[in-house]
Design goal:
Chain lengths: ~290, ~300, ~375
């Protein structure tokens, strides 16, 4: 009797082993299938005009997405200009002033909570804060702008950068701070000359990851930057972005435009892949420097 | 005590311990007993100590970590331009006392102090003391070498840079001088721009010493500087301490008795936060006045 | 008298010690410390302000709808953007006629979030039902088996990289690949297999009131429906649930596993023990997946079908809170419509925050967070 029960258990165990292996295989296959398909169709849809041309307005030969690429770059630059300093400084606060637990504790919690806000809600906030008031002041019908879009992206970036910075600063050994203070440095000197520089590589990685994340965001821009078919470098107008343009073309009825949407997705994925790769290279090089090999 | 305990049973008499003095071995160390009871007996301070001019004077200094008292009424002068060692078993407060001199204990939550540690007559804990300026006048080397992740040059001149020195020549000269004093110059002079993290443990510690002495501190505080190093590196550092002791006052904490004997001019023996005996190293090791000290330095307890 | 070691204010140490440059520097690094403190505290305050602004702005903008509908908003299925004119009916149900003309009544716009709450809940739950078992199985494999095969590193890297694919990409794939596939192959196949099974008719036919009469008509299968949306969501949350579960299971002490094996447990039985040990962390992983699914916008908007009605059939188009906002907010006129949409946004926000907070409570400490 016992051995029959054991045999059942044994068989169950072997069967479940196969099931778990199958789960892993299925997940990896599914995800590779999705990304592989996107890459394959994207490659078939892309050509130089994608990068070189701007929209023509003609639906049969829609041109390229140069305006959208430039738009994304400008939006990211604006978002980073606000998001990186604020995020890093907040991260420094959470790490170096954590003894002020009355404020630091809740703030850490708030930062975590903010990373979970759905991006469309951020977009709506951006609309209410940056589009509506500006419309009232300038008495336009509605003032969508690149600035509003960048603000929404910064809203997403700041808590992520803050928490990553904090985690990386915590990894800096306490002995560095003690050694610096023992030599008569002030707190500011210790943080700026020793602690931050030693975590520089990992903080940069965190920033790049946050940038890559917001580069792929669409929802926050729907009601802030709105999107545009024009090549514009003026963020005070409705502003194009790669994601918005892809979305517009993909959900539209024109096949030539949909082709551009596929190409756009390929470019987006390539960008993300490049950033991830870059991060690993930087991290490896940074580790080598720390060990004195460079 | 129950009556049955006073008369050992015949069958276990053979396993009874060897004859001990009445009252047990504990009574051989009255000072230790008093300390364990919670008293703070008067420390035995040799007269030879008072013959020197003191640069630092600890005056009835007490320190609490929260509710627990770590230092009890320490009073001792530290001689100028001599090496003074603090010895004692783990937890006796020697590192705590050392870190109180440059107020590094301020960084710990819940630390309270009473009494004073006087540098040139003024307590470092006096109202109105600029801690940062104080620490510039004292140098500290830690148990585990902690060079910053910067170049060797930048490590050495760090203290000067934070004081505002920017003159390249002044920095380079100071760097060379400090590295020579730390007996590291010849080994690194061709790679000053290389990362300090590439040095061996012993080299890193000598770098930390160079870093600590570059601004010519009045007192050099060494917290078990050799405990993370191999014997050869340890010996080199001991030689180094010997060489620089003519120029700097050195206060060194060590758990290694032989090191204290080799390196220091004066030795203080501490136990559970109290000062027990303090005198010339030769006296402490050869003719200590207390049985406790003698037994500790010969390794019979602790 | 005891003084707190840190209560002593800063001031020059001794006047005759190091004068000159050191004096002027003393002033400057207190300035430096003050500046650093100001900048850092200010930035931290900005974070608090961000949350405050979010809640405040949403609340005030949604206030007209909150005042108008109250909590009934959450259980109402009406979504009437414009005023409706229809013939007035008396108590008996007959049309009222005055002076030879039909009397019309005007029905005000009314809004209710029940359909989108239903849509979000059902799509997220189905996504979880699909994704969680797969993720747990994969996590067990990654922790127990993959290390010995030296595959743990590459597999984990792959899964984490795939977590970074933006939702727009999944949306495009869902719209152009999955939806047509479901429409041409899966939908008709399932329909022909199951439509005559008693009790499953609701899956393929719906009852609609046209011109006063109830008519049953087949649900058109477009491929863009609840089923497609749930599938896309499931694929999207696989990476995050897998990697967090993996971290949770990795944190189970080896002694636990070895203990069960020493008692004669089979591989699977020791896995069950691991799952039981890490159950709170695993629940947190599920919550994180739920939060991600509920807040997902772009992908679901493109494949859910944009139909703001409750329909139990998985082949019927639906709407989630996020997709409703994406589809209607741009054209919503100021007033009750926009306020109602903002009310929906508020509900979405509260729900996501709740899931996230619960998830973090459960996962932090049980595993290092997998998120960047």
């Amino acid at each position: 009797m016992a051995s029959a029960r054991f045999e059942t258990r044994r068989l169950t165990s072997d069967a479940m082993f196969v099931v778990c292996a199958a789960c892993t295989l299925l997940i990896v296959t599914l995800l590779l299938l999705v990304s592989g398909y996107l890459v394959w169709i994207g490659i078939g849809s892309i050509d130089l005009s994608f990068f070189r041309d701007v929209p023509t307005g003609d639906v049969a030969t829609p041109g390229g997405m140069r305006h959208a690429i430039e738009g994304t770059v400008i939006l990211l630059a604006l978002a980073a200009a606000v998001g990186v300093p604020l995020g890093v400084a907040a991260g420094v606060y959470l790490s170096e002033y954590s003894h002020e637990w009355f404020f630091a504790g809740p703030l850490r919690f708030i930062a975590d909570v903010l990373t979970g806000v759905p991006s469309i809600v951020v977009g709506i906030l951006g609309y209410e804060l940056f589009v509506v008031p500006v419309s009232r002041w300038t008495s336009n019908s509605v003032s969508f702008s690149g600035y509003a879009g960048a603000a929404a992206l910064a809203f997403i970036m700041i808590p992520i950068v803050a928490r990553t910075t904090e985690e990386m600063l915590r990894l800096v050994p306490k002995t560095y701070r003690e050694g610096s203070l023992a030599l008569g440095a002030s707190k500011a000197q210790t943080v700026l000359r020793v602690v931050l520089p030693s975590a520089f590589g990992s903080i940069s990685t965190g920033i790049m990851l946050a940038l890559a994340r917001v580069a792929g965001e669409t929802a926050p821009l729907l009601f802030t930057a709105l999107g545009s078919r024009l090549l514009t470098r003026d963020p005070s107008e409705p502003f194009p972005s790669l994601t918005l343009q892809i979305y517009t073309y993909a959900t539209g009825p024109y096949p030539e435009q949909k082709k551009l949407a596929w190409a756009g997705i390929l470019v987006l994925l390539a960008l993300l892949f490049a950033v991830n790769l870059l991060i690993r290279v930087v991290a490896a090089r940074h580790a080598a420097t720390r060990l004195g090999k460079v | 005590m129950p009556a049955t305990m006073t008369q050992p049973r015949p069958d276990i008499a053979l396993r009874a311990p060897a004859a001990v003095p009445r009252g047990g071995p504990a009574s051989a160390y009255p000072i230790i007993d008093a300390i364990k009871r919670g008293d703070t007996p008067t420390p035995r301070i040799h007269d030879s100590v008072h013959a020197e001019s003191a640069i630092l004077t600890v005056n009835n200094f007490e320190l609490w970590y929260g509710q627990s008292k770590a230092l009890h009424g320490i009073t001792m002068p530290i001689a100028k331009d001599k090496v003074t060692a603090l010895i004692g078993p783990s937890g006796c407060g020697k590192s705590t006392l050392l870190r109180s001199v440059n107020r590094l204990n301020d960084l710990i939550e819940g630390v309270r102090v009473q009494g004073s540690i006087d540098l040139h007559g003024t307590s470092v804990y006096a109202r109105g003391v600029d801690v940062i300026d104080l620490r510039k006048r004292l140098g500290m080397v830690f148990q585990k070498p902690n060079p910053f992740p910067m170049s060797i040059f930048e490590n050495v001149v760090y203290a000067l840079r934070i004081s505002g020195e920017r003159n390249k020549k002044a920095l380079a000269d100071a760097c060379e001088k400090a590295l020579r004093q730390a007996a590291l110059w010849d080994e690194v002079k061709d790679r000053l721009k290389a990362s300090a993290m590439g040095l061996s443990g012993g080299q890193q510690q000598r770098l930390c010493i160079a870093r600590a002495i570059v601004s010519e501190p009045e007192v050099l505080l060494l917290d078990e500087p050799c405990s993370a190093l191999d014997p050869i590196a340890t010996l080199r550092i001991e030689e180094l301490i010997h060489e620089i002791s003519s120029r700097y006052t050195v206060l060194i904490v060590t758990h290694n008795m032989q090191q204290a004997a080799r390196v220091s001019d004066y030795t203080a023996f501490m136990y559970l936060g109290r000062l027990v005996e303090y005198g010339r190293t030769a006296d402490i090791f050869q003719v200590p006045q207390l049985r406790e000290t003698e037994d500790y330095v010969t390794g019979r307890f602790g | 008298m005891t003084t707190d070691a840190r209560a002593i204010p800063s001031a020059p140490f001794s006047p005759n010690a190091s004068g000159g440059r050191a004096d002027s520097l003393r002033r400057s690094f207190r300035f430096g410390d003050a500046m650093l403190g100001l900048v850092c505290r200010g930035s931290a305050a900005v974070i608090a302000i961000m949350l405050g602004a979010l809640v405040l702005v949403l609340l005030t903008s949604a206030m007209p709808a909150i005042k108008e509908f109250g909590f009934g908003f959450l259980v109402s299925s009406e979504w009437r953007v414009n005023e409706l004119e229809r013939p007035l009916k008396d108590a008996a149900g007959n049309v009222v006629v005055e002076d030879g003309e039909i009397v019309m009544e005007t029905i005000k716009p009314a809004f209710g979030a029940l359909p989108v709450i239903y849509g979000t809940a059902v799509s997220s739950l189905i996504a979880l039902l699909i994704a969680v078992p797969l993720s747990f199985g994969a996590a067990l494999f990654l922790v127990r088996v993959a290390p010995t095969l030296r595959m743990a590193g590459p597999l984990s890297f792959l899964i984490e990289f795939l977590a970074a694919i933006p939702s727009l990409a999944y949306g495009i794939w869902g719209l152009f690949v999955l939806a047509p596939f479901l429409q041409t192959h899966v939908g008709p196949a399932v329909k022909s297999a199951l439509e005559n099974v008693p009790g499953l008719r609701w899956m393929f036919y719906e009852s609609v009131t046209i011109a006063g009469t109830v008519v049953e008509r087949p649900i058109p299968i477009t491929g863009r429906d609840m089923f497609c949306g749930s599938l896309v969501l499931a694929i999207m949350i696989l990476p995050i649930v897998t990697s967090v579960s993996r971290d949770v299971l990795k944190a189970v002490p080896r002694t636990q596993i070895e203990g069960t094996l020493a008692l004669g447990a089979t591989w699977w039985q020791s896995c069950v023990a691991m799952l039981r040990y890490g159950r709170s962390g695993l629940f947190g992983a599920v919550m994180l997946g739920l939060a991600r699914a509920a807040g997902e916008t772009m992908a679901i908007t493109m494949v859910i079908g944009n139909n703001n009605q409750i329909n139990p059939s998985p082949f019927a188009p639906a709407q989630t809170m996020a997709s409703l906002l994406a589809n209607e907010f741009a054209e919503a006129s100021e007033g009750l419509h926009q306020a109602s949409l903002l009310y929906v946004a508020l509900v979405l926000l509260v729900m996501s925050l709740l899931f996230n907070i619960i998830a973090r409570r459960l996962v932090v400490g049980k595993a290092s967070p997998a998120g960047h």
